[in-house]
């Protein structure tokens, strides 16, 4: 009966059986120290009887089963080690791995391509895989939180007849002789689903044919898509987005402190109610503080995003902040124009540690208004890409709003990674389609 | 402060505010009965004062907010109804909906295309949406169960450089001037991830360019992909697949009995340990019972799948059954040949209520053997589609196995729907790319 590294210390004084990968081998005089890796951690095995001769010529990665006695030892990787081992080689590895998984992996920008090229093996590094334990935890936290707020999970199709939001950034494919596109967002579907379940979400892949070589862009990523009906205003949507960020950070540190510390992560400081600053006020504060005039910018500039997060951390004790009140002239056709100030759209960005992690907006829910706004940007209400969408409004949709949040970007920022690709198991960009 | 239909009966004697869609309107002499629909159910509103004159000319789907007094009434939809209503029209619906959502929706095969064409509105039907409440519940049950078994969730890319399993059933797309394909399965990635987390799963979309017009095939569906390392044999994989089916059925009935009954579903009878029958034995039993000789078939025939499920229900008190021991000559290159009987592959199908809902197998984990089996089917180990996959084996993968299970097919069979498309929000097939 196999036991895991995490259970080892509870078996002190007993004989146990463990299985895993040979992680490291070290000779100290007549004693051989083996480190075995399993899904929970590392186990040190002390061999004083030449049992590890069985491993001669074999390399790290070799799969072993070891039987031996557990000796408690606080400084050992799992709080105990195994003595008097009897070793069985389950799978022999006869070649040296192209990447060392028993050391910290080089995450400098220059090394990223090597990192991804060797991803299949590099992920076995216990620090590296910590990134994806945290990510799995984030997904689970988001779902649990949304369920607690009475949201229903749904799946929208990613194969579409037309592109929903247009633009060049859409992948096209041959669909039995017709053209199909890959969904750039679940935007229209989540709004349609408000008519069914009022509060909905999905976490599913999203595709953008981004011809970008930045640390922020990928062609495929996991999008947390949230939409809620019967809202009083944008503030209801902000509350849910803030709630997600809170639980994601809190649970990641509660459940994976060890992995986060090994990754060099720092616990985020977040106000219970995240601060909100209007875009105008941001421009004013930034211009005043730096002397660089941004008051004519229609969006927060990347420099402003970084600056306001630092400012907010210092002044408002929150590393996350909402920027709100974007100019109405730049809004999308489905955005909602503020009722008190028609120059402003009910839209906000959630910034966290220097980048935007979510874009939020209230949507125009009145059929006639929506058709009018669509036509104003040159859209054709009869076009297949809009026809079914508009049906939902024609037959009654309540006031609603929502947001999209990138899972990888959220993970990246919780951990403090340089590029969003480092928070992706097998990243996809202009140049990379494998592994 | 809005309250929901499910909370209504706890507010008997009080004044409340509810919001939702006008579901039905009925005149009985001087009294108007309104039914309001919200995300949890229906609320009956009794108007004796002509307040509903405000709804003159408006149709079902109109979004309303109603304030009134709660009167307990057991036979009312939510165990109470609202009297003395004051109505506010939030969103007017001025057209009659193309599909009636206040009645049972026609699910006969002839009506399916109409059903899907009007899906955006049809899903608002409380019986219809029950299908997707059950489906959300199934997803959650599967995840909770797998987490309880120490599986880690991951996401594999769906944009690939080459097709993993070949065949004509692959969608191709233009990827910045190169060719990319859409993943037909997470097969290779989940095996790679065994090297990282030992036990992994994902529930993500999968794409098959199936030129099929059946009730079983779609071009996009949600696949529950599971893989586990350090197994003793295929029986470990069977146990997890059986576990999933058990929790999915149990929780669906625990949490959504009302929806299931409205859908005409029948609680499944499942043995704690699902019965296992070898393919040979199935052929023998079927041939003996029906007089039709299937002993030369390499797979269970559709007729056999139905027959054995009925047989199992009657003889073994289980509506689900495993068929195992498939002929080795038909196995895929990554399947594992049985150690005691080399004519047999360690492979099984999980059948439930007449169809296969999962295919399971132990995988060949020995590098040399795998390369040999790949070459034997004409595969090139240096090909991009195999190169990274084989890396995982070269540097050590333990004995492992797994399965794929279709979320929609599982939902379909739990509910007892005719076609898998009925268990899909927005189905995709050869002819259907919208809504």
**Helices and strands of chain A, in N-to-C order?**
EEEEEHHHEEEEHEEHHEHHEEEHHEH
* Number of extended strands of chain A: 16
Helix content of chain A: 25-40%
Class inferred from helices and paired strands of chain A: alpha+beta
CATH topology of the largest domain in chain A: BirA Bifunctional Protein, domain 2
Shape of chain A: elongated
What is the total domain count of chain A?
2
Mean pLDDT of chain A: 95
Task: Identify the most extensive interface between protein chains.
Answer: A-B, 87 and 87 residues
Largest sheet of chain A: 8 strands, mixed
CATH H-tier superfamily of the largest domain in chain A: Bira Bifunctional Protein, Domain 2
**Strand fraction band of chain A?**
25-35%
Q: Give the C-level CATH assignment of the largest domain in chain A.
A: Alpha Beta
Low-confidence stretches of chain A: none
Strand order of the largest sheet of chain A: 6-10-11-16-15-14-13-12
Task: Give the topology, please.
The structure is a homodimer of 435-residue chains.
Chain A: E1 15-28, E2 31-37, E3 42-47, E4 63-72, E5 80-91, H1 112-117, H2 119-122, H3 126-148, E6 152-153, E7 159-160, E8 172-175, E9 178-182, H4 187-197, E10 199-207, E11 220-229, H5 234-255, H6 257-262, E12 276-278, H7 279-290, H8 302-315, E13 320-327, E14 344-352, E15 355-363, H9 367-376, H10 384-394, E16 400-406, H11 407-415
Parallel strand pairs in A: 3-5, 6-10, 12-13
Antiparallel strand pairs in A: 1-2, 1-4, 2-3, 4-5, 7-9, 8-9, 10-11, 11-16, 13-14, 14-15, 15-16
């Amino acid at each position: 009966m196999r036991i895991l590294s995490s259970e080892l210390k509870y078996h002190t004084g007993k004989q146990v059986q463990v299985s895993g990968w040979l992680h490291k081998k070290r000779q100290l005089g007549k004693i051989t120290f083996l480190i075995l890796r399993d899904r929970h951690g590392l186990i040190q095995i002390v061999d004083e009887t030449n049992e590890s001769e069985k491993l001669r010529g074999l390399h790290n990665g070799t799969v072993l089963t070891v039987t031996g006695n557990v000796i408690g030892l606080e400084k050992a990787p799992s709080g105990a080690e195994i003595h008097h081992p009897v070793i069985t080689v389950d799978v022999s590895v006869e070649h040296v791995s192209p990447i060392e998984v028993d050391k910290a992996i080089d995450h400098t920008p220059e090394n990223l391509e090597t990192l991804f090229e060797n991803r299949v093996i590099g992920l076995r590094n216990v620090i590296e895989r910590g990134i994806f334990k945290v990510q799995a935890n984030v997904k689970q936290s988001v779902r649990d939180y949304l369920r607690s707020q009475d949201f229903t999970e749904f799946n929208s199709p990613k194969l579409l007849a037309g592109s929903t939001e247009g633009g060049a950034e859409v992948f096209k494919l041959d669909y039995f002789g017709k053209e199909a596109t890959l969904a750039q967002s679940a935007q229209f579907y989540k709004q349609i689903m408000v008519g069914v379940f009022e509060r909905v979400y999905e976490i599913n892949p999203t595709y953008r044919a981004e011809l970008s070589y930045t640390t922020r862009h990928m062609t495929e990523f996991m999008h947390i898509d949230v939409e809620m009906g019967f809202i009083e205003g944008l503030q209801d949507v902000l509350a849910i987005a803030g709630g997600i960020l809170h639980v994601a950070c809190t649970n990641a540190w509660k459940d994976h402190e060890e992995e986060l510390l090994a990754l060099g992560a720092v616990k985020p400081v977040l106000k219970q109610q995240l601060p909100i600053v209007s875009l105008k006020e941001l421009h004013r504060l930034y211009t005043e503080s730096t002397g660089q005039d941004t008051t004519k910018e229609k969006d927060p500039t990347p420099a402003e995003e970084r600056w306001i997060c630092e400012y907010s951390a210092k002044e408002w004790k929150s590393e996350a902040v909402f920027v709100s009140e974007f100019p109405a002239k730049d809004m999308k056709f489905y955005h909602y124009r503020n009722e008190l100030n028609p120059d402003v759209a009910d839209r906000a960005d959630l910034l966290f540690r220097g980048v935007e992690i979510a874009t939020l907006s209230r949507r125009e829910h009145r059929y006639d208004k929506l058709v009018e706004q669509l036509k104003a940007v040159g859209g054709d209400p009869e076009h297949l890409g809009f026809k079914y969408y508009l049906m939902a409004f024609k037959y009654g949709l309540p006031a609603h709003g929502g947001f999209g949040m990138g899972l990888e970007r959220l993970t990246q920022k919780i951990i403090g990674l340089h590029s969003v690709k480092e928070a992706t198991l097998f990243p996809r960009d202009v140049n990379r389609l494998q592994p």
